[in-house]
Amino acid sequence: MEKAPPNITALVLAAGEASRMGGPKQLLSWRGTTFLENILDQINNSLVSRTLVVLGAHSGQITAQIEKREGAVLLYNEDWKSGLGSSIACGARYLTEKNISTDGLLILLADQPLVDHHYINTLIAGFAEGEKKMVATLYGHGMGVPALFSKDYFGALTQLRSDVGAKELIAKNRGHVLAIDPGEKSLDVDTRQQYRILLQKDKDQTITD
After folding, report:
1. How far apart are CA 112 and CA 122, in angstroms?
2. Per-residue pLDDT reduced to its tens digit, 133-173
3. Residue 171: CB atoms within 10 Å
4. Which residue in 160, 184, 31 sits closest to 107, CA to CA?
């Protein structure tokens, strides 16, 4: 009998101010939708069981855009200015306080538009193998998000505060981490220039295809 996939909760971090972008990059247009709605669509097409979205800056604008979407619980991080760590802690606390049964927490960013449901499922498949309690994305300088954490680490996740997010937790537990090479899918967009380059590259790729 084929083994059932693990019960995974996705946590989308969308609380940042995006000061270098000059506006909420979560709502930037991307392939007929927005950055945030795109990652929510990818999650919905994956093996993820439930979705949490942590908001902070621009929460009013973002909520108005996505509040009618089904299947995502919106959380507000009052401490969003302190960085990604506090948003991760917000999501982990929600799971703990609500006593929600889940095998792992998959942390995703709203500004990585190339992350798709195939990559999400690859992370979940690596976690399902059971050999490692963390699955992280491999970068040239180390490992980071998207990353999937076993429920064993929820306590540690609730204590995060700094803008470093979960990178320090991953680094301290390297022996328990499965690293996945994302190819170009780890690209994140922080500036208008990066956004223009991404749109042009995507347009050129579409024409080629």
Report:
1. 16
2. 999 999 988 899 999 999 999 999 999 988 878 988 999 99
3. 14
4. 160
